[in-house]
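Quick one, tokens below. Sequence please?
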């Protein structure tokens, strides 16, 4: 995928992926010009939560700042809502007629996102609760421990005939209908081999969203792609991926993760080959 005025940073030609170091609003405007009827089967968006305002949390038993970076600072409810409306309206234009949008967020942002989606005429499909079995303890002891995030799933509009892989979801849930409460731990160390992102999503969560709402060969977009979790999950499930990220350090991380996952799947020797090589070295 080429977007006029933006360089695709993915150098691995064999990968069905495009990655842009840019403001997603600019990239989406260029894409809308090139594809006025829409070009994505699915969009997963994990936007800024606007919670980096000097608070504290607990990490590995220590008190640390909750601040994630300048991109996550709140500019007040109205400006935050205008921003959510701006990127969501572009996502809506970029969805194919039957495409769907997933948006994750905490209480700091999800109500504005949901309201903007209602204003824009998205058709709400589900509000998924992601329950974290191992949340950080609540240091202030003035509220319940925060242990969930919400993921809204919506179709482009009321006319859309969205795709839902009901059978695959049922099969994943011991042959019972999959409920809208999902339990996933935070990403483990083996998902952080190439570096860390402060709000990295678990791979299993992204794989479920993608498997539920797309088929092999479909095109998945992530406007706030961070460490590239959506890209790695999409490519692993044989989908095509396009992502945008504002911060250069996360663009580099996303690129490393996608190329690394591709090499692992295609180049790394199989277990038997590894044993053979060791045998040769011993000789
Ligand atoms: C909540 S994080 C996404 C994390 C991602 N889901 C992952 O698993 O790594 C949001 C990301 O959006 C980026 N961002 C913020 N504003 C942006 C914008 N206007 N355009 C593109 N990226 C943006 C931030 O730098 C941050 O990496």
């Amino acid at each position: 995928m080429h977007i006029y005025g933006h360089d695709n940073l993915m150098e691995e030609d064999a990968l069905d992926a495009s990655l842009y170091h840019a403001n997603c609003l600019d990239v989406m405007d260029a894409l809308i010009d090139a594809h006025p009827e829409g070009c994505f089967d699915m969009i997963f968006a994990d936007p800024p939560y606007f919670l980096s305002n000097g608070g504290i949390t607990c990490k590995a038993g220590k008190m640390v700042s909750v601040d994630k970076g300048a991109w996550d600072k709140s500019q007040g409810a109205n400006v935050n809502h205008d921003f959510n409306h701006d990127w969501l309206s572009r996502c809506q234009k970029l969805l194919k007629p039957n495409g769907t949008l997933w948006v994750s967020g905490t209480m700091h942002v999800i109500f504005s996102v949901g309201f903007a989606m209602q204003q824009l005429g998205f058709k709400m499909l589900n509000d998924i609760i992601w329950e974290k079995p191992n949340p950080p303890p609540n240091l202030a002891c003035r509220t319940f421990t925060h242990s969930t995030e919400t993921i809204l799933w919506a179709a482009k509009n009321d006319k859309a005939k969205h795709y839902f892989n009901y059978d695959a979801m049922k099969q994943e849930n011991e042959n019972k209908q999959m409920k809208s409460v999902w339990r996933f731990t935070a990403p483990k160390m083996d998902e952080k081999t190439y570096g860390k992102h402060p709000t990295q999503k678990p791979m299993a969560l992204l794989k479920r969203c993608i498997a539920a709402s797309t088929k092999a060969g479909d095109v998945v977009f992530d406007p706030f792609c961070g460490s590239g979790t959506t890209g790695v999950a999409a490519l692993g499930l044989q989908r095509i991926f396009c992502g945008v990220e504002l911060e250069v350090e996360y663009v580099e991380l996303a690129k490393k993760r996608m190329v690394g996952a591709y090499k692992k799947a295609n180049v790394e020797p199989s277990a038997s080959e590894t044993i053979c090589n060791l045998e040769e070295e011993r000789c």
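Residues 269-283 have pLDDT under 50 and may be disordered. The chain has eight helices and ten strands.
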